[in-house]
Predict the 3D structure of the following.
Amino acid sequence: MFFYSNNNDNGNRRLLLFIVIAIIAVSRICLYIGDNKTADNNDTETESSAADSVNVSINTSYFNNSNLSYPMGSAEELSGDVAVVSVFASTPDYSWDFSDSEDCRTREDTLKYMDIASEWIEKNAVEWNQDVNFIYDWKKCEYLYYEADLSENVLISRHNYGGDEVGRYIDSNIPSISQIKNKLDCDEVVYIIYYNTDDKFTDVSNTSVYYDGCNYPYEYVSLYCNNNYCEEPPAVYAHEILHAFGAPDLYTADEYGNNYGTTDELVDYIKNNLDNEIMYTTYDRVTGECHYSSITNDLTEITAYYIGWTDRSAIAEKFGMQSSSHSG
Ligand SMILES: [Zn+2]
């Protein structure tokens, strides 16, 4: 279970509401399908021609009242044009060096996997009569590319420090949400913070979503490019982006009160009936492998409901889950 919550009754609840970032996790479900997966990565090494670090003017117009400006966060509705801002973040333990061919290859992979993930979400949107278009290719738009130096805290204590540090970085170094929306003529903004972690890194990618009390309105994926002996596949990118728009994890009961009230019964139901649902697993249902050239998972009615693509979910109702944040 990878949720981190502000639900704490030990007297520090009010404080925690302000310092704990509600992190929706995670993508890896080794628990269900076994460990020791080997990344099926046969990509050829390519030297990147990627954009240089982008210099932008510091904008602080939302610094003091960001919550009022974006009461639902930067990623509200999964419809229309969605900008994805890429931040390649260095920490003391895991830095990026784009004079190094391996780091360039890893960065190229992120674009490739975003391409697969965005196309997969867009295709699913059509089936729910939605029109979604991701704008993510930073080679075509400097507004979408940043390099950041962050402290180690963002990795070792993400729910106490990382959220604020990432939020502070975005607030001080990236054009404001409204500037991005105006510049790109887009409707929503999601941030992906890429960490150049190695395959021995044991944490898993996760998404920080806005809730009342957050210091910053930015909703962002912390993408650990490698962990647990394999590279994060495109399905993880899609899984995490869906989190940013409200999708809960379906492989775990709601231990901390921030997963829409999922229960063990719900998880059993999903396991027995929808075991290829992307919020349940990001692995291949049959082989248990990660895929790097496609996404073979499904986006089913329960996830469609929680990301606002449909008004109701029979499964959510059957198991007494909380209403979608898109309801009403
Ligand atoms: Zn998750």
